[in-house]
Design a protein that fits this description.
- It contains six helices and 16 strands.
- It is mainly β and 347 residues long.
- It has one domain.
- The protein has a 16-stranded mixed β-sheet that branches.
- A hairpin with a 3-residue loop joins strand 13 and strand 14.
- Helix 1 crosses helix 3.
- It is globular.
- It starts with 5 loop residues before the first helix and ends in a 42-residue tail after the last strand.
Length: 347
């Protein structure tokens, strides 16, 4: 962990006064932080040996019907290998082959009739500039498994997909663009942890890569499209199960017909308060197909915890901090293993 000066701590306090009082009271309006203040806030906040865990009430359209479920956004920093594109077990032995990555695990669990879906998107970016490094996706449901991996090379993205469907497993490479953004990275980039992606009232047209989760549910091939991303001029007070938060609103209009809105907490650490995707067309005809795979989430709770240590009997109680205890995520009610089980050393 880096040693933070008194001046840096003062900058952090200015940048995240609302976060310091906890989630229960919601967030208060805060002045925009400078880039230097955001840098100080990042180093202090994200190198405390814990992960940020955010629980959400999920609604997802699957097979033409709205389904209820739970979602988690899990953010944590960890040492990452440049050559192997994996988390390092012994970074002190890597000798220059390591950098600090910020990882997002985006978990979605929901029921579809008799069977359920368990999916996760893992996004890895460089902590120093939030540039993308790697994305993986996995889906487990009663029909079978699917796994996809995208590695960000300097000029291309290398993609590998393994699927239980006959004609979906493949490897391919697609070119990259200077103005690109992947849908899977939105919940990292739009938080503005190092610097704002857009200034208030600003808009930007970008090359847009539809997300692995959305493409899985719609069986859409990997391909670039275009999107217009716009940030609200002011903030909006939004109420969710976790409380009321002053938030900036980002609107993402994708050329594939979808429109997404993402509410980002104004105060540091700029958590994702709510998101909602919908088809641009009506809910019948073509719009019905477009609605497939669109989802929304509302923050139910948040905590900073070393979750990899909380795997013993009774640790399920920690889910209450995320607003998930008793929910459909099953983790809240699952029995733990033997009392003598060792704490996990990895995450």
């Amino acid at each position: 962990m880096n040693i933070v000066s008194a001046a840096s701590r003062l900058a952090l306090a200015r940048a995240c006064v609302a976060a310091a009082v906890g989630i229960a009271a919601g967030a208060l309006p805060a002045a925009r932080a400078t880039a230097a203040e955001k840098t100080s806030a990042f180093e202090s906040h994200w190198q405390d040996g814990k992960a940020e865990l955010n629980g959400y009430r999920l609604t997802i359209t699957r097979y033409g019907e709205q389904r209820k479920g739970t979602a988690l956004l899990i953010f944590v920093t960890e040492p990452f290998s440049t050559s192997k594109s994996v988390k390092l077990d012994h970074p002190e032995k890597a000798h220059g082959d390591t950098f600090e990555a910020l990882k997002l695990n985006f978990v979605r669990d929901f029921q579809t009739g008799i069977y359920d879906y368990n999916t996760m998107v893992s996004v890895f970016v460089r902590s120093r500039d939030i540039s993308p490094v790697k994305t993986t996706f996995s889906s487990a449901e009663w029909c079978g498994h699917v796994y996809e991996e995208l590695l960000y090379e300097p000029r291309h993205i290398a993609d590998r997909t393994s699927s239980y469907f006959e004609n979906e497993s493949r490897t391919q490479r697609i070119r990259r663009f200077e103005d690109e953004i992947a849908e899977d990275n939105l919940h990292v980039v739009l938080r503005g942890l190092r610097k704002d992606y857009l200034k208030p009232g600003e808009r930007r047209r970008v090359h847009f890569l539809p997300g692995t989760f959305y493409r899985r549910l719609t069986h859409t091939p990997l391909a670039w499209t275009s999107a217009l991303i716009e940030r609200s001029r002011g903030t909006e007070s939004v109420s969710v199960p976790a409380g009321r938060f002053e938030s900036s609103v980002y609107t993402v209009r994708v050329d594939d017909g979808r429109e997404g809105r993402i509410w980002i907490e104004s105060a540091y650490p700029h958590r994702v308060v709510r998101w909602a995707w919908r088809p641009a067309a009506p809910s019948t005809g073509k719009g019905r197909a477009l609605a497939e795979g669109t989802d929304s989430g509302e923050l139910t709770g948040s905590a900073r915890l070393p979750y990899w240590e909380l795997n013993g009997p009774g640790d399920e109680s920690q889910l209450k901090k995320l607003g998930l205890a008793g929910g459909s995520g099953r983790a809240a009610s699952s029995a733990s293993g033997g009392a003598g089980a060792a704490k996990a050393r990895t995450r």
